[in-house]
Every structure is written in C-alpha cells, then in structure tokens.
DNA-binding NarL/FixJ family response regulator
Amino acid sequence: MTVSVMIVDDHPMWRDGVARDLSEHGFDVRATAGDVDSAVRVTTTVTPDVVLMDLNLGEQSGVDAIRSITGQLEGTRVLVLSASGEHADVLEAVKAGASGYLVKSASVTELVDAVRRTADGDPVFTAGLAGMVLGEYRRMAETPSGGDPPPQLTQREQDVLRFVAKGLTARQIADRLVISHRTVENHVQSTLRKLQLHNRVELARYAIEHGLDQEQE
C-alpha cells in the first residue's frame, strides 16, 4: 500500500527537496505547507497517512499544528523533522501528539524508513531521543497522580503494552511473543480504543505511569 504524506516546513527549497526524495521512493506526497494555518487546513482536506512536520514555522510553532491535527484526524500520524534535537522540543512535540521525532541531519534512507515505520504505527526517534522520552515519563511516574483504575486489558494486550513501553517496534514485539505482526497491530489498536489514546507514544507513557511496563511476577 502506498503511504501518503504531507510536508510542513517554512523553507520552500527544503520542503520541495524532501517532497522530491519521498516521491522518488514511492510515497504519495499529497501536499505541502509552510505555516500552521495552512498545515491544519490542508491536512484535514487531504488526510495523509503521515505529516512530516517542522517545529520552527517562522513566528509560529509546529507544536500548535501537531496538537490540532492529531486532535482532529485519528488516522493521521505526525513525524517531526526538525533541526533542533533539544530535549525540551522533543518532549513538547510528543506531548502535543507527535508519533516520532527525527532531526534534519538524518539521511534520505533514514527519513524514508522513518516515514514508513510511522505509517505502520511505530514510534520513531533519532538515536538517543526515544530513551530520553521514556526516561522522562518514568521520572514523571515517580509521583503517582492517582485517578481511575485502568480499563480491563487482556493478558495479551498487557504483554504487548509492556513491550511498547520498552520502545520495541511492532515486528520486534511479534518476535518476542511469537505472534504475527498483524496480531500485534490488532492488540495495539484494541488497547488504544480501550484507553482512548491516539498512538504508541501515548501508550508507552500510560504504561509507565501505571506501572504496566514492569515484568509480571
């Protein structure tokens, strides 16, 4: 299946270059945009599988666009492609709903792989950033916030959730549990619906905050 993409960046030459690279690798680049308002408006019209989002959009922040897009389009995932690798920027983007974060120094091969994996639902981060995000969630979880108990999950859903919280991809989880990749995806989607979450990054955060990332005795 061809993955559809929208590219949001305020530098036209960079935007066009990324669009060309992705098109040459078989992606359906449906549209591009250079500011927050256009990004949100056009994305809701063309409904791509993945939005490749820069954070620095002139005087505006891509975080606002991420929040609006993920709030309106359940089936569209946002992958940040930014010049900044600052931890604060990464966490802000993830908290807004981004599924992953790639720095602009990534090669075309890395970018192509990241977009494909994002479309598959995997959280994708430049090396070192995934551990930082999960580490921050674990730090936040040291002070329990209480609240309602988690909805009832099956044992297999809990198994999958535990590995999601450890940062494993769907294929790695399938290998660990000796089940198919599609079965993993089904469990992830079922768990997302039960917990009313949007993506694997939110799942990982939920699991850590509720202590569901730990091995069962």
About this structure: The chain has two domains: 4-129, 145-209.
